[in-house]
Amino acid sequence: MKYKGYEINTIEEGIEIEEIRDFDPVHTFECGQCFRWRREPDGSYTGVVRGKVANAGYIDGRLVIRNVTFEDFQNIWFDYFDLGRDYGLVKKAIVTDDIMKEAVEYGNGIRLLRQEPWETLISFIVSSNNRIPRIMKIIEDMSGYYGKELEYDGKIFHAFPDAGSLAACSLEQIQICRAGYRCGYIHKAAAQIEQGAFSLKKLAELDTDEARKYLLQLYGVGNKVADCMLLYSGIKYDVFPTDVWVKRVMEELYFKREASFKEIQQFAAVKFGEYAGIAQQYLFYYAREHRIGI
DNA sequence: TTGCAGGGGTCAA
DNA sequence: TTGACCCCTGCA
Questions:
Q1: How does strand A62-66 pair with strand A2-3?
Q2: Residue A291: pLDDT above 90?
Q3: The predicted structure's pLDDT at residue A197
Q4: Which residues of A in 162-181 have their CB below 7 Å from strand C's atoms?
Q5: Under a CB-based contact definition with an 8 Å cutoff, are residues A55 and A66 in contact?
Q6: The whole model's pTM is what?
């Protein structure tokens, strides 16, 4: 059947989408934006999103999403995979030079996932001064201890715990996830949100600068985490999360000298505009895979 | 085997 | 602007 321009078939294991453009699972799931998708031996990926387990991969040129009903697709996955956006147009807008042209060609098929805001916030608080494998383990452990149990394909999975569940935990209970000093950040953020002192829903109503400032009120959230949270939950696309890697990459590819964080952000805002965040993702992935900026 | 540096940042002085 | 920070990993 047709749904918003896509041809969707319901099959026994889930659904399949024909002729989908600009969706490469490897580039999308391994470009550093998400922490809960794992590669299976057959090359597909299994992940937990909004309390549902799913598996995604290509078979004969069709994107197959297993353990998903057509209704789930309409309510969750269409939005999560950002399928309403024409990445062809995005690419046109951000490719203004040979560097971006190459980065976009290389990272062809990266989509920016619209992840659940609360989970995204905590994931990127955990990411501070940390590496991806360890971030994944902490998120996994936290879900295992405090998230709802789910089952798929004979295996047990866990949803990411909601704010109420983590707010109900003592600091010691959060510390068993081995997130170190970030446990205090998580504990406080959960309390602020659960008590209604802070609303993640409000972010969408604010302009980008206001949203960023508002997020900085949360203990443990600085500029980098705020920008990641806004971008990877699909709330704002004109942010340019600048960590030490992106800084080095921008210095090497564009500035040819040292540049301050502020300088880089201003440069990106002018050069890439409303899709600066997506440009950052292509650039970062390209640089990481080519070991630029090391 | 043990020891030490340093990591996709934030906070506080 | 600078150092400490929890925990883990990589590498002498």
A1: unpaired
A2: no
A3: 95
A4: 175, 178-181
A5: yes
A6: 0.97
